[in-house]
């Protein structure tokens, strides 16, 4: 057997060694290696725009893309320079303003409650075409984000953003997402531009699209929240489940308190009680408009409305604020649902777990400890003839629930009529039936010109209603012909009255009919027994008394001119009706104060309507709830937050005497 030969394998020469170095990709040949010593602050410009230093902007999201990058590589900043450029001074969101903060420009960063945001400065208001292109792209970007969060699946949800407005000396431009489009695949070319009358200013470039069914609801918010610049609608699972925490599904709101994220929804601090209204769902989205409007007016402090078994509408004074608040609401609803599963009610103040300042032995002096340990001394009851009056100015100070006194706290009184000075049943059981029972006879005696004038005004009332309003539907089959003018006028008046519509044209006709009723002695204007003495007090103390009612000014004067106490019209300084504005909107009360040349804070307003009392307080007036027999039951928050009077004489008093 031959011996094995040991073989030594020599290492190859360097020139023969196969290279193990990975070859550079084509786009890497021109990239400099990074070293701390070699880096300078202007490297980004050289790196990104080596041949064109004048190219706009720097980084990865602005300006032209360097030719050495392939499309696949440009998706990610592979170099430190690229990452610094991207995250150093380029935001991820498409925008048309320079910066944003949840804290408003006039607020302190230490405030517990934030009600507005700081929007930054517009960078393209002088370039409307580019502004429109940018906002449309932003709407698409937001919809994609909400899809990824599970808020806009199945083409649901949507976004509306508006820009411009009187503060910028131009008309609003309103951009809305389309209907039925995959939200994760939306592009700016899918977005509509509208004006504030919901007319299409510029349709999307994508053909065959329709405006979102949410559109009427977005405009409800824009109408009643003048500062709102963005409205978001989502089908968030947390929002939907929050509407069903009440097993009866009859709750008209959800209350949440003592959670840190309350600060993120506007107007609320950690220990406030957030009350978010809930409205019932309808077969189609646009049918929710009336319910949404009522909720927006009833809850002026809340920036969102929940739709039962559906989702949420949220808004803000910028798109960033709306997005931040929508995220905060969702967090709170998720917390509420999970707390419910733990048996905890999110609307009840926790007994423990929240910081409280409590007096301890460490904070007590020696004398205090001795007094505490000694037998309790009985505090003598004050004698009838006390030696001197105590200083209780703090108890006399006005609060939100203190009944204001005339003329001590104000010298202008603004009054509602129905349920305040006069019984609701008088209007419901006397005035309205009189119109209904005598309408045909009254109209048949009118001249053709009078019929035409009334018909024009009442048609306008109906035209201002939503297309699916019951009054509109009741009149859609009327034949427009001179032969049927009287019949059509009667039909339209009854359609409006059947649905309790308060409109200017209808009120004018009713007022004229009531005038004939008053003058013929068919009825007298009803007033409560305390009303005349209250008027006498105000007259003797130089307090101006004004009326603000949904009834026309002519109807107001007819009622007070034909009472059992005689003609009372001489007691009133001014009259206002719905021509001044909607009684449920704060701007109407601001307008009245301006006409009267009085600061809103120096006006007392008394009414039986919850929506009106909240609107008046929002305008700055001292709002008082009138509680009369037959008025609608009050909600718990109104009972808690507003002064209530059972007689208007409770408003009469000065520093020394109160009746």
UniProtKB/TrEMBL annotation:
<dbReference type="InterPro" id="IPR023943">
    <property type="entry name" value="Enolase-ppase_E1"/>
</dbReference>
<dbReference type="InterPro" id="IPR001303">
    <property type="entry name" value="Aldolase_II/adducin_N"/>
</dbReference>
<feature type="region of interest" description="Disordered">
    <location>
        <begin position="359"/>
        <end position="385"/>
    </location>
</feature>
<dbReference type="InterPro" id="IPR036412">
    <property type="entry name" value="HAD-like_sf"/>
</dbReference>
<keyword id="KW-0862">Zinc</keyword>
<dbReference type="GO" id="GO:0016829">
    <property type="term" value="F:lyase activity"/>
</dbReference>
<dbReference type="Pfam" id="PF00702">
    <property type="entry name" value="Hydrolase"/>
</dbReference>
<dbReference type="InterPro" id="IPR017714">
    <property type="entry name" value="MethylthioRu-1-P_deHdtase_MtnB"/>
</dbReference>
<keyword id="KW-0486">Methionine biosynthesis</keyword>
<feature type="region of interest" description="Disordered">
    <location>
        <begin position="1"/>
        <end position="66"/>
    </location>
</feature>
<dbReference type="GO" id="GO:0046872">
    <property type="term" value="F:metal ion binding"/>
</dbReference>
<keyword id="KW-0479">Metal-binding</keyword>
<feature type="compositionally biased region" description="Basic and acidic residues">
    <location>
        <begin position="366"/>
        <end position="380"/>
    </location>
</feature>
<keyword id="KW-0456">Lyase</keyword>
<feature type="compositionally biased region" description="Basic and acidic residues">
    <location>
        <begin position="113"/>
        <end position="129"/>
    </location>
</feature>
<feature type="domain" description="Class II aldolase/adducin N-terminal">
    <location>
        <begin position="137"/>
        <end position="337"/>
    </location>
</feature>
<dbReference type="GO" id="GO:0009086">
    <property type="term" value="P:methionine biosynthetic process"/>
</dbReference>
<keyword id="KW-0378">Hydrolase</keyword>
<dbReference type="GO" id="GO:0016787">
    <property type="term" value="F:hydrolase activity"/>
</dbReference>
<dbReference type="InterPro" id="IPR036409">
    <property type="entry name" value="Aldolase_II/adducin_N_sf"/>
</dbReference>
<keyword id="KW-0028">Amino-acid biosynthesis</keyword>
<protein>
    <recommendedName>
        <fullName>Class II aldolase/adducin N-terminal domain-containing protein</fullName>
    </recommendedName>
</protein>
<dbReference type="Pfam" id="PF00596">
    <property type="entry name" value="Aldolase_II"/>
</dbReference>
<feature type="region of interest" description="Disordered">
    <location>
        <begin position="107"/>
        <end position="129"/>
    </location>
</feature>
<keyword id="KW-0511">Multifunctional enzyme</keyword>
<dbReference type="InterPro" id="IPR023214">
    <property type="entry name" value="HAD_sf"/>
</dbReference>
